[in-house]
Please model this.
Amino acid sequence: MLISLKTRSLKDYESLHLILTNYSLLPLSYDKKKQLDKWCKVNLLLISWKAQWADYAHFTPACYDLVSSLNNHSPPNIILLGKSGSGKGTIARDLERNLNYCTISIGDMHREENKRGSNLGIRIRSLLLNNRIDSKEMSKISHTMLRRKLKIIVPSERPVIFDHFPTFSSNIPYMEKLIKEFRLTNVVVIVPDISDSESLKRLHSRIVCSSYNCREIYNLLTKPPKNENICDTCGSPLVNRIDYTQVNFNKKISFYRNVTEKVMHLLGQQMTVYHIQNLHLLLQRYVF
Model:
């Protein structure tokens, strides 16, 4: 009942907080009342900061659930999906620095094998050139590479971020095998939600570090480097990752609508999927 309650004014939140602090009025467990009370306090804090409406209007109980799980002594393993420019790379790096996460980017792994010129890299290049990126063979290759990576990570007991994997619905059975083999518990899907127009604006202003070992991401509008075209972290030159023409962007949005959303729907039948607006703001204020 309270989870679906939509309050929008300071008076509403204060009233709800007053009820929650009087535990005898609610037929709920003590732990649940404490959770709801904390969620209410979070919303009160947002309003007390006089944040702009866009900053807090979409901070829902789902946001609180996510914040609580990330602040837990055993944070969840994360499948990170979303539109291009939604901030997935920045969010992953922030989680690595602040919560000791380890990010596995299947795209980076493919590029690394390709750059090394290994037999696996040659096969990946062939599949890409023949537009067979969503083939069963590519799924098997990705599964092999992820197993190799997880064998190193899992013994360290660090939580894992799967950056945009599963990419296709054909990848999901292989993801399930990994979860079962490595006994990955509490796996959730996080989707930083942004509009199409915001995605395009961010992509046009995005630059990245040219060093493969760094790959720090900057945005000329929201996160510019201290020195023009120089990475703050390692001092390497900054480059545009791709030419984001309107045609290219339309293809990316089409891929998100037709492929990624289908993956999210299928994953949602097995695990929790968090669609969060202003995710970076949420993490900065309540997690880091």
User: Anything to note?
Assistant: The first helix runs from residue 10 to 21.
